[in-house]
Design goal:
With 908 residues, this protein is α+β, with helices and mostly antiparallel strands. Helix content is 37%, strand content 19%. The protein has 25 helices and 34 strands. The strands form 8 sheets. Strands 12, 13, 14, 15, 17, 20, 21 and 23 form an 8-stranded antiparallel beta sheet that branches. Strands 24, 25, 26, 28, 31, 32 and 34 form a 7-stranded antiparallel beta sheet that branches. A 5-stranded mixed beta sheet has the order 6-5-7-10-9. A hairpin with a 5-residue loop joins strand 14 and strand 15. Helix 6 runs antiparallel to helix 17. The radius of gyration is 36 Å and the shape is elongated. The chain starts with a helix and ends in a 5-residue tail after the last strand.
Length: 908
């Protein structure tokens, strides 16, 4: 029994010795490569390998989001924690569901350890790619094991793959190779096993990297066209039927992971032809390499712009092409009993392609890869010479969504590998054992010299490129630990939305740490972010780098973003001062409340923003448009012909926010009239002029005064749960001065210009009816927090020592005011409560009702109209001051439960 077992093991080791060798060697070389290029294997389970690069942070986060969606929202695969309020925001990224499905068991077995899973898969891409290429050339060429092993390692550790070492999706070439292998086997045998392998490999290829998916389509199409041209009889109905079945299965399994992308308008739009042109390779890229031996010769981009594969690889490929008529075992008809085992791979009953055909078709693939990587236009010395075939491919779905066209060079790399394997096989068949051994050792040495990647720690006097990279490495190595901030964010409600500042474009020197770090940390707190990064960006996203400009803060407020987080460690001292200056200058239009600072990150409450550009008058609020309007779609304030300050709508839609929790605001239920003075370049611009509040369209009506209009806003469309309400102004179009015939040159486009705007209350008298205000909606005044709720109870905290409450009186009857205190942090504050009405004090009596403190007083007689109640206390205090373990830094006073106003005769 023991001898039989040992014999079976010995037989298995002999049969699979090539596979075991390529797996073992690729594993050792992968670990050595990671350490060589800047990794640290001692931190393999605790740090992303090989180094903390921005794309590593980004791509590892996309894996986390893919895992999270698969486990918790499998029917909402377009969800992600970035680009809040954008549809199917995961479509902006690579969304590597293929990698996530493939590695999900490892992720779960490691206890959801993202870093360890990522690093294990990184190593696996090298091992699996080497094994897949080895199996492919052993099958296609019946190549000697040694030749197949050498070229499998050369392809796996090629310059192309190592320049993509921070792009885990591009490293996933094993899926592409498995799909090509299955394609060949299906054409040769037409068995269902190859149908399922091809469709499964297509799933993992396309959903790991859209680039690799398109490469697979191009390679399969090239091979199919060769077969059609040379061996049409091999494409029998059975073969075509099974290829169709594989395609249908692949489409069915991929569709759920692709359909959500169509919901994203930016993804549907794809990249512009100019962007594709910018990221295509130039001819000089084909003779520039970035491996260790060539890096001193580089004068520009060291990644996508350097494609030279090495002289050894080129010479072998050239020899393989020249010897395409020689060597290799003939692929002839065989019976089932003649099937031989080659490292676990059985030869087909009949292989459609002879070694000559294999060399020929993969030679064509080399040409296709080189031509396509040059993009839509041939460039020489930055001069556009002629259009190229990719100009046509760009018109097809999928190809227009590819940006870095230089990556098509992978097709050439794989072709070089196949042709090089054939050349080695021919050489090995022509020499004696000693000659073959010496030749293989010399060739391996040459390949090693040319393919050894650049060590990130190397710096030479004439190597300015890598001096820069060393500086960058020092920066990204000190990835900031903001555990306290992430803990604070994790304690916020799940529906909290945050905005990080600065954006990418503001800090180019630390770009790898800016948006990427926000993404990487999002997995720790789980909140939705307005920020994000990916293959695509939402339209106008980079405009938010101008925070805290008025229109930017207004848009963030409008979209419901709660906190703005300013990361001072990503700003220089001068940039921090500039930010403070912008905040101070914007105080004319709004005040952005500062909350606290955690881990050096300043936190502002965007939903507590207070509008300060309004003047309070007896008839309401007035805005003069002499400072930027708090909204979107406006030009900066300017002057009209008569010297008045005017702010023009820059678009056919502009938003304008009005205080709804200010001193001149009224209780919910009161109608408003918005009166404003406006001008246009041509009277016809007023024809399609209207407004919208909430979802209600409202007409804008002219008054008897020339150029003055009124907008009637019923209380039914006003919000009850916000401190401001928004008016959206609409016109049919914008116009230039030249188009209006009032200027000679085309200047900026405008719609309607606003001079001033007044908000007035309109209410019906209700004599003798008591008024009761539950503090479950925003208080019409200043000095208050947002309402809070627990079960059926609601209350609102004072956040200042003085808080106002504005309301309208329908008569001049003597009124009694009663209000109940729901909570207080310091009981001593109850002894010093003061109430003023229009500046006059009210005598208060304090009683207890159901264990709650109730205050009652009689208001002095006043005329019907608007009054302002002012609540005063001696001081405020925070929960953090009373309990150091509390994260609540808010300064609070009294929390009021309800307030009642009624004629004295009706009060009990």
């Amino acid at each position: 029994m023991l001898n039989a077992t040992l014999n079976r093991v010995r037989t298995w080791l002999v049969d699979y010795r090539g596979t075991l060798a390529v797996v073992g060697l690729s594993l050792l070389l992968a670990l050595a490569t990671i350490e060589w290029v800047g990794g640290d294997l001692s931190t393999f389970s605790s740090r992303l390998q090989p180094f903390h690069d921005g794309d590593l942070l980004l791509n590892s986060w996309t894996m986390y989001q893919a895992y999270d969606n698969l486990l918790h929202r499998p029917f909402n695969l377009g969800y992600s924690g970035i680009f809040y309020d954008e549809p199917a925001s995961f479509a902006y990224t690579i969304a590597p569901y293929g990698i996530a499905v493939f590695t999900l068991p490892v992720y779960l077995l490691t206890g959801n350890d993202l870093l360890l899973t990522y690093n294990l898969y990184l190593v696996a891409t090298f091992v699996l790619t080497a094994w897949a290429f080895y199996a492919l050339v052993r099958y296609l060429l019946s190549a000697p094991r040694t030749a197949a092993i050498i070229m499998a390692l050369a392809v796996t550790f090629s310059q192309w793959r190592l320049t993509q070492i921070v792009h885990i999706e591009s490293l996933s070439t094993q899926f592409l190779l498995c799909a090509i292998y299955a394609f060949h086997r299906l054409v040769d045998e037409a068995r269902w096993r190859w149908v399922f392998l091809l469709s499964g490999a297509f799933f993992f290829t396309f959903l790991s990297s859209g680039y690799l998916g398109m490469f697979l389509i191009v390679m399969a199409a090239t091979i199919a066209l060769y077969l059609v041209a040379r061996y049409p009889d091999r494409l029998t109905l059975r073969v075509l039927g099974m290829l169709s079945a594989a395609a249908v299965i692949a489409i069915v399994v991929c569709l759920p992971f692709l359909l959500y992308r169509l919901d994203n308008p930016d993804f549907r739009a794809g990249y512009t032809l100019n962007e594709v042109f910018t990221h295509s390779a130039s001819l000089d890229a084909l003779v520039r390499g970035n491996t260790l031996i060539y890096h001193d010769l580089i004068s520009g981009d060291i990644t996508e712009g350097a494609l030279f594969p090495g002289f050894s690889v080129l010479v072998l490929a050239l020899l393989g092409w020249m010897w395409r008529h020689h060597g290799g075992k003939p692929n002839v008809e065989a019976t089932a009993s003649d099937e031989a085992v080659q490292d676990g791979t059985k030869t087909a009953v009949r292989i459609a392609l002879t070694p000559r055909d294999v060399v020929s078709v993969y030679g064509v693939i080399i040409v296709v890869g080189v031509v396509l990587c040059l993009g839509p236009v041939l460039r020489i010395d930055d001069n556009e010479i002629a259009p190229l075939p990719y100009h046509l491919l760009y018109q097809l779905p999928g190809f227009s969504s590819m940006r870095v066209i230089a990556r098509f060079f992978l097709l050439a790399v794989l072709g070089f590998g196949v042709l090089g394997t054939h050349a080695l096989g021919v050489l090995m068949s022509r020499g004696n054992s000693l000659q073959v051994f010496v030749g293989l050792v010399a060739l391996t040495g040459l390949l090693t010299i040319e393919l050894v990647p650049v060590n990130r720690t190397i710096s030479t006097p004439n190597n300015r490129i890598f001096d820069l990279h060393n500086e960058q490495k020092d920066v990204v190595s000190s990835y900031p630990d903001k555990s306290a901030l992430n803990e604070w964010l994790a304690e916020q409600p799940d529906d909290t939305v945050i905005f990080h500042y600065p954006l990418w474009s503001e800090v180019p020197r630390a770009g790898y740490l800016c948006e990427y770090s926000y993404l990487f940390d999002q997995r720790l707190h789980g909140l939705k972010m307005f920020n994000g990064w990916g293959s695509l960006l939402p339209n106008q996203y980079l405009r938010y780098a101008n925070f805290p400009e008025v229109n930017i803060v207004a848009r963030l407020y409008q979209k419901g973003v709660r906190y703005a987080l300013v990361h001072n460690d990503f700003l220089t001292a001068s940039e921090q001062q500039q930010l403070r200056d912008r905040l101070e200058s914007n105080n004319r239009a709004f005040t952005l409340p500062y909350m606290t600072s955690v881990d050096g990150v300043d936190i502002y409450d965007l939903q507590a923003v207070q509008l300060t550009g309004f003047a309070t008058e007896p008839q309401g609020l007035v805005y003069e448009f002499d400072q930027p309007a708090f909204g979107m779609g406006w030009h900066s304030p300017g002057f009209s012909d008569d010297g008045a300050t005017v702010q023009w709508m820059a678009e056919s839609e502009a938003t304008f926010h009005v205080p709804w929790g200010d001193e001149a605001s009224l209780l919910p239920g009161t109608n408003l009239d918005v009166t404003f003075a406006a001008i246009t370049l041509t009277p016809e611009m007023f024809d399609g002029f209207y407004a919208q509040v909430g979802d209600t369209d409202l007409p804008i009506q002219p008054t008897s005064e020339d150029g003055v209009f009124v907008l009637h806003i019923p209380h039914t469309v006003l919000p009850t749960d916000a401190r401001t309400f928004m008016i959206e102004f609409y016109t049919d179009a914008t116009i230039t001065a030249a188009e209006a015939g009032v200027g000679e040159e085309d200047e900026y486009r405008v719609a309607v210009g606003f001079d001033w705007l007044r908000v007035q209350s309109v209410y019906d008298p209700t004599v003798g009816e008591p008024l009761v205000f539950e503090f479950g909606s925003p208080v019409p005044g200043v000095g208050w927090e947002n309402p809070e709720r627990l079960d059926a109870a609601t209350w609102t905290w004072m956040n200042a020592t003085e808080a106002t409450f504005a309301l309208a009186l329908a008569s001049s009857a003597e009124l009694e005011v009663t209000f109940q205190v729901a909570n207080v942090l310091d009981q001593a504050l109850l002894d010093g409560v003061v109430l003023l009405v229009n500046g006059e004090p009210v005598a208060l009596e304090r009683t207890t009702l159901d264990s709650a403190d109730v205050f009652t007083g009689v208001l002095p007689l006043s005329e019907a109209g608007q009054i302002v109640l002012t609540f005063q206390i001696e001081q405020t205090v925070s929960l953090a001051e009373l309990d150091p373990s509390s994260p609540d830094m808010r300064q609070l006073g009294l929390a009021l439960d309800w307030l009642r106003l009624a004629p004295v005769s009706e009060n009990s």
